[in-house]
C-alpha cells in the first residue's frame, strides 16, 4: 500500500509538472507570434519610409524585436 501511495503521488506531481510545461510552451508560442507580427509591421513601415530619423527609430524597434527572438531561443 505504501508503494501505491508513493506512485500515485509521484504520478500526480509528474502530471502537474507536465501541465505547467505545456502552459509555458503555449505562452512562449503566443509571445513568438506577437514578435513575428510586430516584425512584419515594422518592416512594412520601413519600406514606406524615406526619412532618416524616423527610419532609425523603426530600425531600433526592429532590433528590439530581434532581441526578443533571441531570448526565446
Description:
- The mean pLDDT is 86.
- The protein is rod-shaped and about 75 Å long.
- It has 73 residues and is an all-alpha fold.
- It contains 2 helices and no strands.
- It has one domain.
- The protein has helices spanning 2-48, 52-72.
Give a brief description.
This protein is mainly alpha-helical and 73 residues long.
Task: Supply the helix-strand structural class.
Answer: mainly alpha
Q: Which whole number gives the mean pLDDT?
A: 86
Tell me the radius of gyration.
22 Å
Strand count: 0
Give the helix tally.
2
- Uncertain segments are none
Largest sheet: none
Order of helices and strands: HH
Which overall shape is indicated by the principal axes computed on the Cα atoms? rod-shaped
Summed up, the domain count is 1
Distance between the terminal alpha carbons, to the nearest Å? 45 Å
State the helical fraction. Answer: over 70%
Strand content: under 5%
Provide the fold topology.
Layout: H1 2-48, H2 52-72
Helix pairs in contact: 1-2
Can you tag this structure with a few keywords?
2 helices; mainly alpha; 73 residues
Amino acid at each position: 500500500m505504501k508503494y501505491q501511495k508513493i506512485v500515485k503521488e509521484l504520478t500526480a506531481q509528474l502530471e502537474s509538472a507536465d501541465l505547467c510545461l505545456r502552459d509555458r510552451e503555449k505562452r512562449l508560442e503566443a509571445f513568438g507570434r506577437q514578435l513575428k507580427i510586430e516584425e512584419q509591421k515594422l518592416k512594412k513601415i520601413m519600406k514606406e519610409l524615406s526619412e532618416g530619423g524616423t527610419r532609425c527609430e523603426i530600425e531600433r524597434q526592429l532590433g528590439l524585436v530581434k532581441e526578443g527572438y533571441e531570448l526565446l531561443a
